[in-house]
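Run log, item B.
One chain of 280 residues. Sequence copied directly from the ordering sheet:
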Amino acid sequence: MGYNPYKPRARGLFDPNHTEPYRLSRSKIDLFIECPRCFYLDQRLGLPRPSMPGFTLNNAVDELLKKEFDIHRKDISTHPLMKAYGINAVPFAHKEMETWRDALRHGIQYYDKKNNIILRGGIDDVWEASDGKLHIVDYKATSKKSEITLSDGYKRQVEIYQWLFKQNGFPVSDTAYFVYANGKTDNKAFDAKLEFDVCVMPYTGSNDWIPEVIDHMYQCLIGESVPGKGTSSGNVCEHCDYRETVGKALYSLHVQGGKSEKPKTSKKETYEEAQTSTLF
């Protein structure tokens, strides 16, 4: 049989009986906000959502921007974009910068003793203002003709980074910056190069919501039942809907084809409840 990327993983799962701190990345906080059910399936049962294709062009833009700002970090100088937008700052020079940028293995971390969880996130950049305050900076790349706006997910992302830096004792400004590179499509030809319009978008964040969400995440993790489908805001989760629709279709196919018997359920037990431990 071929490799099955959706076979439940056995490593890195939350175990309520373990005393070691459990590690959660910034993206998992976002997953919980999007859908506690998907979060539980991922962290307790080892069943993640299907992976998305990698945005390699976006990664290239990120890497080049980091190299560009690192030149000014080394020289302790202001980048032309900062000057253009009236930002009196320089790229923050710190010995842990590369560690903070390593989203897969390190990032900036904080140990929450209350819930015994280590939270971490990999940043793009930090700028240090003339008053000593730090501005969290995130690089984004897109190509669109309409006005560029910040999604709720992007906003939460920098708010979590701000919170992590604050928990580590850094003087963090509530204002974060997005360096947005927008690919131009109005050139006459490609000519083996892609040009961008680059802008800086300020955003004033709030971190007040994070401690409560962490508490809810922990309660979700220690629970012994799968949460109901849908997002924390009450919206529909398309991944949960897909799993349910496919599960019902396969169940119907097997029953009609005589390939399996109908699962034994009590009169009060619904179809979805009967399938929770298997399909969902």
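Observations after the first pass:
- Residues 265-280 have pLDDT under 50 and may be disordered.
- Strands lie at 22-25, 89-91, 108-112, 117-121, 125-129, 134-142, 175-183, 196-204.
Flagged for discussion on Thursday.
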